[in-house]
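User: I'm writing a short report section on ligand binding and want a predicted complex to refer to. Could you take this sequence and iron/sulfur cluster and write out the structure as tokens? A short remark afterwards would be nice.
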Amino acid sequence: MSSRPARALTTLADLRREGLIPDSAEASLAPVAEAFRIRLTPAVQRSLGETAEPGVALQYVPTTAELTIRPEELADPIGDAAHSPVKGLTHRYPDRVILHITQTCEVYCRFCFRREAVGGAGTLTETEVEAALAYVGAHPAIWEVILTGGDPMVLSARRIGQILSRIAAIPHVEIIRFHTRVPVVAPERIDDALLDALRVRPQVMVVLHTNHPAEMTAEAAGALSRLAGAGIVLRSQSVLLRGVNDDADTLEALFRGLVRNRVQPYYLHHCDLARGTGHFRTTIAEGQRLMAELRGRLSGHCLPTYVLDIPGGYGKVPIGPGYVAEGAEPGSHVVTDPKGGRHGYRDPSRSAEAAAAEGPEASPVV
Ligand code: SF4
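Assistant: Sure. The structure tokens for the complex follow:
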């Protein structure tokens, strides 16, 4: 790798020149590159130069495994299209909408759940933004607008400022949330102009997508420090990825690194059923086992919720592990502690509850 890369790598020839794929692989990877875009920013290239861990490169460098499409895999695995009342908007839950302001990203992740959409249609036109915000304005139950894409932070600070001001003018919207990879893959974008744009009301929250502790370079930590210093609430989302972070040591380092940089771990996503991503997917049982192991190692505030976006657009739910099972008797439970020990627990009986609620005066006189 060049030590001070000046531009993004976007072609197989670029990857070959930088030694990220062997010369012999270019022909076999051509159909992958045709189907799904490639982009590694200079910051990603620098992070690759700083680590011998394969977990960063695997996220961005294409492999022929992406040509294997499994029967259960879908072009739109979380069902965005089924909940899109207006172009560029997903309204799945009553109190929040996703605004897909752009389909462009700084990087193209090999496991992306929107990989069939990103990199394609570009940015919403002014008319489309107008229509999407009119929809938000007409639905008073919408409390939160989530800007995603693509990656909304690829837009200029000026454009971001304009969009935020317009959302902030909708009285019932109290929270604007960014989902972005920019602080780790293009940290230089977090500059004074962007910070000024983000300082609006309602409260702006940034949810950082990061999957491996080696992504937390000094440059990335600097970008997060600037965001936190500007009063932006920071949370994270990560995807559980085979070969990248599917071991407890890597996840522990990832979550500790986030908390150290004032980012609250928020979600660990089970890898969605996007086409050509089966080689990244663990089983749910493996994910639950990892989360149970981490529960014994980390403070609760370092642990994200392990979630699955139910295929078809039915929403996101926590998928464990569960610590409570029903016991043999009504009202009895078996609770598992962080080390795997099992303990009985019994709910207060109804009659005791009723006696407590009625108080001593109500006790029968004998
Ligand atoms: S940055 Fe996000 S939206 Fe873009 S390719 Fe990666 S996972 Fe997908």
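A remark for your report: Residues 105, 107-109, 112, 114, 118, 149-151, 181, 209 surround iron/sulfur cluster (CB under 6 Å). The chain has two domains: 80-318, 324-349.
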